[in-house]
Design goal:
- There is one protein chain.
- The chain is α+β, with helices and mostly antiparallel strands.
- It is built from eight helices and ten strands.
- Helix 5 crosses helix 6.
- The longest helix has about 70 residues.
- It starts with 8 loop residues before the first strand and ends with a strand.
């Protein structure tokens, strides 16, 4: 028996039904002599008995099972033991220890004691063979020697089997540890990957959003307009663009301050976003200029969509003074080869609105 708690445990050889063939070690006094146990599952309480049966099934199905926690009755109280098992052609080797970290230390100690037991057994067999020869001189000495050699061979085979089982358990434990580390690493990589995707999405949103007004910026507008431009060309659809400029915005800033100007731009962006059609896109180009991508509309329909924005801004309540906007409108034509041409014409139309009195929509067809 081993007195050190770190190397105490129980080692049992069972058949595939859990029937106990041999108790190799029982440092924990789990089996109370002289009462033998017929089945491995009878060592545990009712709940752990069912789990013990599942443990045996796992050892048989997988060839080995690791760190199954089972409640065993130890000194009249329930104690959690960690069980490990491996299967071979000769049966199941089941090891139980107080702590899963001590299984390798327990295996080494068990291997040392088994070697001592094997040496004692071999000496006993030799002495028995000599005694038989002395009592029964008529027996053939060669036969006795042959029997002794067979017994020695059997003992050696049992010792080798125990060594291989212990080595297999040690290898399986190492594989289990490595697999656990790989699973932890994989989970960490997946978490980092999800965090990276979320960060990239957030960066993409920030790169496409105007920080003051919260609506799409010029970069987002050009990307959306480019896509709408190719779609309209390919599918022969209508497309218009409006550029919107706040009238007399400089005097608003000079009179009421830049903070008041920023608040006016925020309110204007909110009005544009709420008034525009669901299929259209509102963006801030910079300063007091905004833009509107009007899909599937040209001529009077596009002019109506742009003028609806102008009227919503003119009729809104403003904190400092009334605000109006001038709008330039351009519609896609067959000769257009890029969005730059469309934006340039919308800008020319905006200039005309400014020169002819402001607070109006000028369209270039």
């Amino acid at each position: 028996m081993i007195d050190h708690p770190q190397t105490q445990g129980i080692a049992i050889i069972c058949d595939t039904q859990g029937g106990v063939r041999q108790i190799l070690r029982d440092d924990l006094n789990l089996v109370a002599p002289p009462q033998p146990i017929a089945n491995f599952t009878t060592l545990f309480d009712r709940a752990s008995s069912a789990k013990a049966a599942q443990f045996l099934a796992a050892v048989i199905a997988q060839g080995a099972a690791f760190d199954w926690q089972l409640n065993a009755c130890l000194k009249n109280r329930m104690t959690m033991l960690h069980f490990f098992g491996s299967a071979s052609d000769t049966g199941l080797l089941l090891l139980g220890v107080r702590s899963s970290e001590n299984i390798v230390r327990f295996q080494d100690e068990m291997s040392r004691i088994n070697n001592e037991h094997v040496n004692v057994l071999r000496e006993t067999i030799r002495q028995q063979a000599v005694a038989v020869a002395a009592v029964e001189p008529k027996d053939d000495p060669q036969q006795i020697e042959a029997m002794s050699e067979l017994n020695n061979e059997l003992v050696n085979m049992q010792r080798e089997l125990g060594r291989k089982n212990a080595e297999l358990m040690r290898v399986n434990l190492e594989l289990h540890r490595v697999n656990s580390e790989l699973e932890d690493t994989r989970a960490q990589l997946e978490q980092k990957h999800e965090q990276l995707l979320a960060a990239n999405t957030q960066l993409a949103d920030l790169a496409a959003t105007d920080t003051l007004t919260g609506i799409p910026n010029r970069r987002a507008l050009e990307q959306s307009l480019q896509q709408a431009f190719y779609t309209a060309k390919l599918e022969d659809r209508a497309l218009s663009v409006a550029i919107i400029d706040v009238d007399h915005f400089k005097s608003l800033n000079d009179t009421f301050g830049h903070a008041a100007g920023d608040e006016a731009l925020k309110q204007l962006a909110n009005i544009l976003s709420k008034t525009a059609r669901e299929s259209d896109m509102v963006a801030r180009l910079g300063g007091e200029e905004f833009a509107l991508v009007i899909r599937n509309a040209a001529g009077k329909e596009a002019h109506k969509a742009a003028d609806r924005l102008r009227q919503a801004i003119e009729s809104a309540t403003w904190p400092d003074r009334p605000i109006t906007v001038s709008i330039g409108l351009a519609t896609l034509r067959p000769e257009h080869t890029s969005i730059d041409q469309l934006l340039e014409q919308a800008d020319e139309a905006l200039y005309t609105s400014k020169e002819t009195g402001r607070n109006r929509v000028t369209a270039i067809q």
